[in-house]
Design goal:
By secondary structure, the chain is an alpha+beta fold. It is built from seven helices and 16 strands.
């Protein structure tokens, strides 16, 4: 589970803002890391598979990832691109797909290789066609899923939703929120899972995000307050998530709000753990790298 939001400069009065809560197993360690630019020798090893390395050096990235995996839940690169993903389910069963790139792998590859949101969209399409999507997004158990993505930079933003290696793209013109369901209308009509309990587990969180974005101007402080919120969602299925059920545990284990200005280094307000229990740390991406 995850919740993501972005607001372009017209809605903030200044800079693009991006926010995400990463909801994972509560006992899973997540780490916040700075990865400086590097040159891979021929191949890049992702969580489950290898793929051709990027030509030249990667971009420096501040990202948050489960300690067992290679990919990022969310992050910001030195060029000012922020990215994150959320699990979604469609009429295509992800358990039938062979191991390939996970949604988290795709987030990291985008941040390392794409300087802006438009190129992030193109890169995801290329990677889905050449490598594919598949493999478990959890340690020690096979729990694959498809992903939706939110990409934002100082000037524009896009939502990408996937089902296997197919996808749909929607440009953001003001504000946008995504969660654990398809939201692009044509794509939803085509592939939405008919039995996913979105009305109780997902839609209240998505509605809360949309309400937060309707309050102008959208600010860093408002997004942080929203990501700490328990106001919507029964049984712990709130934006700041603390769900304990016999067969399914979820908790918010990392969070980030990013400021993406034009012409200046991006700033990330990040924490590991639950936003309602921890304090966001302000980091200038590429400058404050001693984590």
């Amino acid at each position: 589970m995850c919740d993501l939001l972005c607001a372009l400069p017209a809605a903030t009065g200044g800079v693009t803002l991006f926010g995400k809560n990463s909801d994972r197993p509560p006992d899973e360690l997540q780490v916040l890391e700075w990865h400086p630019p590097r040159v891979d020798d021929g191949v890049t090893r992702a969580t489950h598979v290898e793929l051709l390395a990027a030509p030249g050096a990667t971009l420096g990235v501040l990202g948050s990832r489960p300690a067992w995996g290679w990919g990022f839940e969310h992050g910001v690169n030195e060029a000012g691109l922020a990215a994150g993903n959320a699990s979604i389910y469609t009429t295509l069963d992800p358990r039938s797909a062979p191991d390939a790139l996970t949604g988290m792998d795709l987030v990291r590859l985008v941040l390392e290789r794409a300087p802006d949101a438009e190129q992030a969209v193109s890169l995801v399409a290329d990677l889905l066609a050449s490598v594919g999507q598949g493999g478990s997004g959890h340690d020690g158990e096979r729990r694959p899923y498809w992903s939706s993505f939110l990409f934002a930079d100082p000037r524009c933003a896009y939502v990408v939703e996937t089902s296997g290696n197919a996808g749909a793209v929607e440009e953001v013109f003001d504000v946008r929120a995504i969660s654990n369901r398809t939201t692009i209308p044509e794509f939803t009509a085509e592939v939405a899972h008919p039995r996913q309990p979105v009305a109780t587990l997902v839609q209240p969180r998505l509605d809360a995000s949309c309400r937060a974005l309707s309050q102008r101007p959208v600010t860093v402080e408002a997004l942080q307050a929203h990501l700490r919120s328990h106001a919507d969602g029964e049984g712990g299925w709130s934006v700041c998530m603390h769900v304990e059920e016999p067969d399914h545990q979820e908790a918010t284990t990392a969070s980030m709000v990013a400021e993406l200005p034009v012409g200046s280094p991006p700033v990330a307000h990040a924490l590991i753990g639950s936003p309602c229990e921890q304090t966001y740390r302000r980091l200038v991406v590429g400058v404050d790298v001693d984590l």
